[in-house]
Amino acid sequence: MQARDFHLDARPLLDAFQLHLGENSPGICVGLVELLPEAVYCCDPTGRITVYNSAASDLWGRAPGPGKAIFCGSFKLLFADGTPLNHDKCPTCLALRRGRDVGSVEAMLERPDGTRRNIVMHPRLVRDRDGRVVGAVNVLIDLTERKKLESKLAGESQRKDEFLALLAQSFAIRLHPSVLQSNCSTGGRMPRKR
């Protein structure tokens, strides 16, 4: 799956907040993040999570305390194939370390109860008016139900293909010249066993 790429330039948003609400209004940012329907969290430049919404804590299966989680709030991260992915190698960390966006990445997260969720991560750097990296924001899209449906459809497609192959084989046998000749000589009835 190729995730849709998008660019986040938070400078106009930061300018609007500072112009209308003043420099000391972090509560508005928390309120805006909470309004978003998908899992969203923000990190400072060191990777410490500073804010996340309830959709993120629901997806993670936990609510890490402010500043306690680094780079991601999930219990464990895994590549899409199930290989473990250390938090210090996750896309948010890589973006912060490299100073550039790394694109969207499909992965899995594991909750404290052991359940896993398929996700696509969209980490983006947040820059101040001077272009300095001041943190990162990551949007997590839960693909679990979609993956289940894709798997179910793939299974149904395989069963359909097997049925059609069996049907084609059945027609091929019935149309084979020796079977046709036998059907003609017996009037379409199966010959009696002796």
Major β-sheet annotation: 7 strands, antiparallel
Give the count of helical stretches.
6
Which class do the helix and strand fractions yield? alpha+beta
Strand percentage lies at: 15-25%
List SSEs in N-to-C order.
Answer: HHEEHEEHEEEHH
Radius of gyration: 28 Å
Q: How many structural units, i.e. domains? A: 2
Low-pLDDT stretches are: 1-8, 16-25
For the biggest β-sheet, the strand order reads 2-1-7-6-5-3-4
The helicity comes to 25-40%
Query: What name goes with the CATH superfamily of the largest domain?
Result: PAS domain
Mean pLDDT: 78
| CATH A-level architecture of the largest domain | 2-Layer Sandwich
Shape: elongated
User: What kind of assembly state do the chains in view correspond to?
Assistant: single chain
Compute the number of strand runs.
Answer: 7
What's the CATH C level of the largest domain? Answer: Alpha Beta
Give the CATH topology of the largest domain.
Answer: Beta-Lactamase
Task: Report, as a whole number of angstroms, the end-to-end distance.
Answer: 60 Å
What does the model show?
InterPro entries: PAS (IPR000014), PAS-assoc_C (IPR000700), PAS-like_dom_sf (IPR035965). This protein is elongated. It has six helices and seven strands. It has a seven-stranded antiparallel β-sheet, with helices on both faces. Mean pLDDT is 78; it is low at 1-8 and 16-25. It has helices at 11-21, 26-35, 54-60, 91-98, 144-175, 177-185, and strands at residues 39-43, 49-52, 76-79, 84-85, 105-110, 116-127, 133-142. It has 194 residues and is of the alpha+beta class. The protein has two domains: 11-142, Beta-Lactamase, CATH 3.30.450.20; 149-185.
